[in-house]
Fold:
Amino acid sequence: GTKGNFIVQRYIAQPALLGGRKFDIRCYVLIAATKPHWVVLFRDGYVRASLSAYSSDPDTLADRFVHLTNAGVQKKHADYAHRGEESIRSMADLDVTLAAQGDAPPGFVTGELRTKLMTISREVFEAASE
Structure:
């Protein structure tokens, strides 16, 4: 059999959407010390969004502009010259948009989500250091 480390992911068929488009959150973590652990989440992360509306239609699975939020992919979108700023958004904008869509209460991003991101960052660091 094959030996080694693997990363296993499951495609999320019904993702949270931002204005009808897929998005992800890019945030940065500073590992200030390893003994004792001191992990700091930088508060000004940002959101990467696709420029094409999301569709769960299997015929769109090969459409990178629909399913991938990577900036390198979105820069090749036909409308990038006119709409490129829509592909990178602030965390404040995420908070306002999620509240307007009814997907989260106002302040969710700076409150509950930030706390969860800090917890995840700490847990990932601790798992990696074992």
Notes: The mean pLDDT is 89. The longest strand covers residues 29-34. Residues 95 and 107 are 6 Å apart (CA to CA).
